[in-house]
Amino acid sequence: MLYEEKRFSRFVFFLTLPAYIGLLAGLWASYYEGEGFEIMMIVFVAVVLVLVDVLTFRIEIDEREIRLRGTFGVILRKTIKIEDIESFEVKEGWINCWAPIRFNFPAKGCVIIHKKGLDVAFTIDNPEEIAMVLATLGVPRAA
Question: What is the percent of the chain where pLDDT is above 90?
Fold first, then answer.
């Protein structure tokens, strides 16, 4: 593993907190009323899995590929082979980061991967460190 970083956003946690509270209230109400508890439990588990998956974001780079994953990798999952990368760009700030496939968390910078097919962008606190790793792997930096 050449590079690994795990990102967690308190902002996203607080943004999803009302959903957790609402789901718990709905689960309790369905249990209390004795109707639809089984269905509500299934919905509760499914929605909590999705919400937990988007809370954390992992970036892993090795000699063959870049892996972008959520907590479980169910919803957030993207693998980019190094040989498919045409070039990459590093930008300051996380708001200027644009690509058709985007993994955004508040961060110091972002990396945009230009590849065959759709470009991929992700935010990171150490953009120059990723630039150094990608340059070491022979990926050209965009002008």
Answer: 54
Q: For the chain, give the number of residues.
A: 143
Q: Indicate the DSSP class of residue 25.
A: H
Instruction: Give yes or no for a contact between 140 and 99, defined as CB atoms under 8 angstroms apart.
Output: no
Selection from 56, 57, 58, 53 nearest residue 3 by Cα:
58
Print burial letters for 50-76: b (CB count within 10 Å at least 16), e (below 16). bbbbbbbbbbbbeeeebbbbbbeeeeb
Reported as a pLDDT band with limits 50, 70 and 90, residue 143 is: low
Record the pTM.
Answer: 0.81
**Other Cβ atoms closer than 10 A to 7:** 18
Q: Is the pLDDT of residue 120 over 90?
A: yes
For residues 15 and 22, what is the distance between their CA atoms, to the nearest angstrom?
A: 13
DSSP summary character for residue 76: S
Residue 91: how many other CB atoms lie within 10 Å: 16
